[in-house]
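Hypothesis: this fold can be encoded by more than one sequence.
Test: take the structure tokens below, design a sequence, compare later.
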């Protein structure tokens, strides 16, 4: 498994860390994240996101220069509350917990086992949707074109992983779209936080604006494909019941913490 693929899949599997249900936790990770992997919902039925997404920007084009300008303009966010949120959002495995305020409860393998299992099963689907265009376009990370601070170490492994589309954004927006279906009365709050989770990659300086935008498109393509899977639809209905019960049982997240998070999430990084 190459560095790009292991990073995305490993982060998704971390969602189940610390008490995942046995039937999921005991399954070995697939040796490669390729179309037709033994896990996941879609396999060879997955939409070809490489063909669907717009091409990655190339040097000298308007989109390329816009990405450069946005990267440089957002470096002033270093050491602000939005920077702190970006650091928090680096943990791909923490995306469900990060949605707790938006949903109204922290969903765990204990209070939402089928939902947690569903997120784990999505791993290969998200990895394929992300890695196929990444590996084809090989677009460099923004700090490799224009030097600037990032909220994580500019390691060799990170630099070797292509920029377009963002795997973090693809996964985060996928979870946001699914949660918006499971708790439709909180859809706005959920998708605001999911958008902020993805934009944290822009704030952090490890993805371009186009990689973030394409990540959201990527997730939308994937979720559309997932709804064609009978297994996914069945899991979604069980998860809907779990989420409803969990929200009623509580406890609800701390209101003051949630208010502060919502204020930070609402702030646009593009100003």
């Amino acid at each position: 498994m190459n560095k790009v693929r292991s990073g995305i899949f490993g982060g998704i599997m971390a969602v189940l860390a610390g008490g995942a249900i046995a039937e999921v936790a005991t399954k070995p990770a697939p040796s490669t994240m390729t179309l037709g992997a033994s896990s996941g919902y879609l396999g060879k039925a997955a939409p070809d996101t490489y063909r669907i997404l717009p091409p990655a920007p190339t040097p000298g084009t308007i989109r390329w220069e816009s990405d450069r300008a946005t990267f440089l303009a957002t470096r002033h966010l270093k050491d602000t509350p939005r920077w702190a949120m970006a650091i928090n959002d680096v943990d791909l495995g923490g995306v469900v917990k990060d949605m707790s305020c938006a949903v109204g409860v922290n969903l765990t393998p204990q209070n939402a086992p089928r939902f947690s299992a569903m997120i784990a099963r999505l791993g290969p689907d998200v990895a394929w949707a992300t890695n196929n265009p990444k590996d084809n376009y090989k677009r460099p990370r923004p700090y490799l074109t224009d030097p600037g601070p990032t909220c994580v170490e500019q390691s060799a492994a990170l630099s070797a992983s292509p920029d377009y589309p963002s795997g973090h954004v693809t996964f985060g927006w996928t979870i946001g779209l699914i949660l918006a279906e499971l708790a439709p009365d909180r859809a706005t709050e959920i998708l605001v936080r999911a958008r902020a989770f993805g934009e944290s990659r822009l704030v952090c300086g490890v993805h371009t604006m186009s990689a973030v935008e394409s990540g959201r498109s990527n997730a939308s393509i994937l979720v559309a494909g997932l709804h064609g899977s009978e297994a996914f639809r069945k899991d979604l209905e069980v998860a809907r019941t779990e989420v409803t019960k969990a929200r009623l049982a509580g406890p609800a997240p701390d209101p003051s913490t949630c208010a502060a998070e919502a204020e930070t999430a609402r702030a646009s990084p593009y100003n």
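Residues 1-6, 13-38 have pLDDT under 50 and may be disordered. The chain is about 60% helix and 0% strand.
Hypothesis status: open.
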